[in-house]
Design brief:
It is a single chain. This protein is an alpha+beta fold. It contains 5 helices and 10 strands, in the order αααβββααβββββββ. Helices cover about 30% and strands about 35% of the residues. The protein is elongated, with a radius of gyration of 29 Å. It starts with a helix and ends with a strand.
Length: about 240
């Protein structure tokens, strides 16, 4: 399924961006005499680039200078070396800089971020094109957990009022049947199917004691079948699967 491949590509770009950003941070922090491992972990593990922001606002301001006597690193601005006590004469201070740190990892990171956003936009546009019902339906759902994978559609909700939908296509005579199970604790939930835009029928899911099998074998080849769920102040869960 194309959405799985797209998700894999996004995950790959995110991983490459994280690795590249980690490499750049480690080199930059080490060249400045900072705690390279600590700042690398902060930049890589803190989400939403907050770690990178902290590094620029806090980490990179902790400039270090090399002691002219023992060569150890001391915080810039201190009059004496924290290791040997020698005077940090202005003329003898050697500031640690990151001029030699290549910016290639940053460029790779930026490229991966841009590609990730492009793929996400493409996924949204493709979803609108392939399943416009998802975006045209008006629905209020609170506390929802949803699983949409090939041959499976599962939902659980604390409050569901409105409608939800998912489209499938009949190819090579499959799927032949839709298996539906539901547990409705409050309100009402109905299930409906349209075939090429024409509604077949609706069934109530409130009193399902066992799995309901909806026969799809009579639908024409290449027909577009849209599954609809209609909720009225409902609480519960619905599971559907088919031999995709």
């Amino acid at each position: 399924m194309w959405i799985i491949g797209l998700a894999g590509a996004v995950l790959l770009f995110v991983m490459i961006a994280k690795i590249s950003l980690g490499i750049w941070t480690y080199r930059d922090a080490k060249s400045r005499g900072l705690e390279a491992r600590m700042w690398t972990l902060i930049v890589v593990l803190v989400p939403n680039f907050i770690g990178l922001l902290l590094y620029f606002l806090i980490g990179r301001k902790q400039q270090r200078a090399s002691c002219p006597s023992c060569g150890s690193q001391t915080q810039h601005g201190r009059p004496y070396c924290s290791n040997c006590g020698a005077a940090m004469a202005q003329g003898g201070i050697s500031l640690i800089t990151s001029k030699n740190n290549s910016k290639k990892p940053l460029i790779i990171t930026l490229t991966c971020v841009v590609l990730t956003f492009v793929l996400m936009i493409f996924a949204f546009v493709a979803s609108v094109y392939t399943q416009p019902e998802m975006f045209s339906s008006k629905s209020i759902t609170i506390g929802q957990f949803e699983t949409r994978i090939s041959g499976t559609w599962k939902l659980s909700f604390w409050y569901f009022n409105g409608e939800k939908s998912r489209a499938i296509k009949i190819k090579n005579g499959t799927p032949t049947a839709l298996n539906i199970s539901a547990e409705v604790q409050k309100g009402t939930v109905e299930m409906g199917i349209t075939v090429d835009g024409k509604e077949e029928r609706r069934i109530s899911l409130n009193n399902l004691d066992s799995t309901y099998v909806w026969d799809l074998s009579s639908y024409p080849e290449n027909s577009r079948v849209v599954l609809y769920l209609y909720g009225d102040a409902a609480k519960g869960k619905v599971n559907m699967n088919w031999n995709d």
